[in-house]
Amino acid sequence: MSVRWVAVDDNDSAINYSSGWTQTSGASWNNQGNFGQPFLNTLHAVTGGSATFTYTFNGSSGKVIGTTNVKTSGSVQDPVWTCQVDGATIPLSAPFAYVENNWVLCSWTNIAAGQHTLKVTATSTSQAFLFDQFQYVPSPNADITGANIVISNTDSAINYDSGWKTLGGALSMMAPAAGAVMSLSFYGTGITWFGYIPVELPHGSTSAQYALDGGSPTTFTVPGSFGGVSQYSQLIFQTGTLPLGSHTLRVTSQGQTSLTPLVLTWLVVQNGVTREPSSSSGNTGSDTTTAAANVITVVTTLPGGGTSTATISGSVSATTSSHIGTDSGKGIDSGSSSSNLPSSLAGTTSGNSGVAITSGNKSGPSVGAIVGGVVGGLLLVLVILLLLYRRRKKNQRDANEAEQVQPFYRDIPPSGTAPSSSSESPYEAFGVHGPHQTTEVGNSRGFFARKAAMASSSPQSPYTTTTSSSYPSPLTSQGEGYAESSARDSMHAGASGPSSEVSAPSSTGSAAALLQPNRKREELLAESPQPERVMTHEDSGFRMPRARDGRPLSSTIVEYPPAYTPG
């Protein structure tokens, strides 16, 4: 919606006049100049003295309008005046040398919206200072009722059909031919049309019609040009007093292109509001509603000439909210309405229609119930997903626990032998850097068994160590035999990479002494002199991961015994 101004007449009770002001009828000034008649045909004047008035408003831009009646003798001007907003003086334009109504005496646009106080001081020697009205743009949060609301011809709520044309840019809209229609929805008790009579167009008078709320049209005259100049701010027609509420104005031109066109410059709504109430008492349809206390009687005309009468007990709230599509980029509000009725409606019908009126409860779904249902459904889905996830993890854990690996081959070293403490670490003695290192040895079984065999068969073996005794050799995960072909051992002995850097343990005995068969623990303990300590390699508990189909993830697995600190 475009910016709408509030017009405060000089007779408004909210204006505080000092002494020295007199109320003057505008009738004696109606024929002065070509800017129309004084607003609402009233003026306030200061003659032969000085006086002030103040007015507090909630808005931003503003302008003081009156009848300019200035005489200048040399450098002396009579009358003179000043305009102040919140104590700040508003600059004035040069005075006009002729008498004109609806003349802007001072104006401003650079004040922020809010509550402000306007003060006008006028000083007159002999020429009267004439104040007519004050217009301002209300603040967005201002709730103004019972005011004169000025609606420009460019307001987006006005709906023009294709028969309307612009005149003088944004100055006015005109309908040069018959049949052009405009419409507007407004809230108030009446509306006044102000136009412009252009001297440059045909001068003959013509006519047009207006209708309110779909009622019978009223014909009014569109005056032709007079005085040899264009006439501005001309009152074209004013409706009678209407019930306070929402109404629809529809205007149709009846002129010809050879006559003066119907022109709209602005409209003024009487007893208008800046915010239309949620309920209205406007009569825009064929139904008549009468309210008394908490009982409402609805009388409806039925097809065939009958009428129906319904009595509603309880409180009723009505809301008017509808919008008609726009034409040429403009839109208007219509007068359709909807009501929230009580739970029971009983009625009687008169006439020959035999129709009974009943009404039942109509209630939509609760917003809280909808939100609760949506949240509950989401929680249920999350719980199901969590249960499925936990079940899947449990199945994976059970499958991993079912996989078993063979324990380390328990090999007890010969009696009287023990690891030397000269080695910094058991892993360094074997050329191994950590308990989890895996060496790529193809399909060989018993990595250290092969190294021991090569150490005994080749005196020039590069695999030497500073330790005085050997550790038992580990087995593969299958826990099977040690033997490997000497050709493959020779191939590994000369290989480069990690296996060529491994130092094999030396022994005073042959390799066969290191590779003892699996003997019973009791026999070994019986042969070992006391107080020797016997250590048995137990299952580490580590489970090798397997694929889902049960196959191992790697084709070759080399196991190392646990590391111990000499002591």
TrEMBL record:
Extract the ranges annotated as region (Disordered).
Answer: 313-362, 395-567
In which residue ranges is the amino acid composition biased (Basic and acidic residues)? Answer: 534-551
Which domain of life, per UniProt?
Eukaryota
Which keywords label this protein? Membrane, Transmembrane, Transmembrane helix
Gene3D superfamilies hit by this protein: Galactose-binding domain-like (2.60.120.260)
Per the record, where are the segments of Low complexity compositional bias? 313-348, 413-426, 456-478, 493-511
Query: What name goes with this protein?
Result: Transmembrane protein
Residues crossing the lipid bilayer are 367-389
Residue stretches of biased makeup (Polar residues): 349-362
